[in-house]
Amino acid sequence: MGCLWAKDVVTAWKSQENYECGPNKWNIFADLLDKCNYFTGCGKKQNLDFCTTGICWGIYVSVKYPDYEEDPESAKWSAHYFTYQSDKCDMAAVVKYLYQYFADNGAITNNPERGDIAIFQKEDGTMYHCGGVTAWDNDYIYITEFNTEGGKVKTHAYRYSDIGGKIKCFCRPRYDGWEEGASDEVEAPKEPEKPKEEPKPEPAPEPTAPKTAVYKVTTNGGILRLRSAPTTDSMYLIGIPNGTELIVNQIVDGEYVDGSDQWARTCYKGLNGFVSCAWITKT
Hints:
This protein has two domains: 6-171; 213-282, SH3 type barrels, CATH 2.30.30. Helix content is 17%, strand content 30%. The chain has helices at residues 6-15, 28-35, 51-62, 72-75, 91-104, and strands at residues 108-109, 117-121, 127-136, 140-148, 152-159, 167-171, 213-217, 224-227, 236-240, 245-257, 260-268, 271-276, 280-282.
C-alpha cells in the first residue's frame, strides 16, 4: 500500500474545479471507481453520480505507487488510509454510511484541516451531501464540492458558524502527513564516514518583545489558530476567539503570513503554542 499525503488529495480535488458532471450522467470520477470495482452492488451507472465519487476519486488517485492495471483489487486503500465501500447506491445513504465509518473509527472533528471531508445536513439533521476541505483562513472554510450547482465541481466558502448547522462535522482520513518530506526520497550512495566533531547546540532565538506582554486577538470576527510551531503546516491545537487577550512570552521568526513573519509564543486554555503576529495587537 502506497503512502497518502493530504496535499496530493487537495491538489486532486482542486484540479477538477468547474468540471461539469451533469445530473444523472456517468462522470469521470464514477468511471474510474467503477473500473476498480470500488462501489459494489450498484446496477445502474447513473446511480454513482453523486458527491462522494469526487471525494473518493481524489483520495484514490493520490495513493502513492498503487498498481491499478495489474492488480486493481490491491490498488484499493486499506483501513489505514481511508476504507470506505458501500453497497448503498442512493446519495443520502452513501453519505450516511460514509459518516458512520469515520464515526466508528473516532475520526470525526469540528476543527477542519485541509484534506478533511465535510458532511452537510438539512435542517432536520438528514445528511445529504459532502465535500473536501481545500483551504481555510480566519473567516472562512473553503470546501470543494462535487455534483453541485447542477452537477458542477465548485469551491464554496463557509463560515465557522456553519459548523453544527448546515455543516454537520468533518471526517478525517488517516493521512501520512501534509506532504512528502525529504526522508521519503531514495538516498544516494554514501562515502565512508569520517570522524565528526560533536555539533554544538544552536542558541535559542533571542526574544524581540518583552516577556509577559499583553496582546489582543484582532481577527475581525474569526478565530485565531494556536499551532504547535510557527508555521501553518504545524499541528492545529485550538481556535482563539477574536478579542481574547493573550500573554505573549516571546516573539520568534516563522512562516510569512498575511504581511508578517513574526509569531508569538503564548498559552491558551492550558495549551502552549504559537500564533501569527499578523492577527494580534499589543495592548
